[in-house]
């Protein structure tokens, strides 16, 4: 490997420690970023040059051990600390933090969950700064939140949507309201078909026209993800639906995309979907979750509930520990300095070698 090998090893050390310092810098920069998951670096030895593979002993002589020279160091892994963090109080009733494992599922309004690939096409996030926009529950970036909406009560068309949730994973949106009263003179609340998005009218008394979404006030979310409010027009309580939580088999296998968002790549495994606590029970559309031509075992696709709960009025704090980051920064800085010495010393030795010709 000669002197150039020492130079290469030193340069690899510079690159590896610079990458590690970049991770530390990003962690420190996001010390106040809600939901931030800090990175953690591990180093890995680089490839080796083998001068001798070693030999076994014989009846007359002992064996020899392998002789190998390394070519430096590289980054082994950059993992994310996906553990639950402390909570920041916001005092806002629509802010939600997850206590336990799991992610909120967000996407666009038209994403149909008809396969495992489609389910994994949703975006994962731990930041639950929610609000209703244009009738849909969205996060701070305008992504639609997925969950289980309540069906309209067909037994009594003059009542508000019932408390029984659908078992289909769909974008959460407010129920529609009708401009025409039913035969009793009561307001008619129109549900939404979970598959097509079309309006669903109460049995035996369909409304003639639909006039936007129900106007709600005093909207709140409980620890089980249940969204409730009060109808401004009638004062009736309305249960909108339940927020879904998704979990993956390998937390460190999720791919960080941008901001507080992740995708469930191949390394993450399948997504299991449920609700905080056990507020929605049943086999949550397992008959329609397929993987290619094979029906996926419901236990590997959709669960009956989640062990996690929600804390409203809070957002998850950053996972950055400044004491740890500053300690790592000093360690990586010293490692970088040591590798610069290897490079400078090797350069001096090469210069001496060149000067031998004079």
Structure explained in plain terms:
- With 358 residues, the protein is of the alpha+beta class.
- The chain folds into 2 domains: 2-50 and 67-84 and 318-355, no CATH class; 87-316, no CATH class.
- It contains 4 helices and 28 strands.
- Strands 7, 8, 12, 13, 18, 19, 20, 21, 22, 23 and 24 form an 11-stranded antiparallel sheet that branches.
- Helix 1 (2-29) runs antiparallel to helix 4 (322-355).
- The chain starts with a helix and ends with a helix.
- Mean pLDDT is 80; it is low at 153-161, 183-208 and 281-304.
- Residues 312-356 form the Flagellar basal-body/hook protein C-terminal domain.
- One of its GO terms (cellular component) is bacterial-type flagellum basal body.
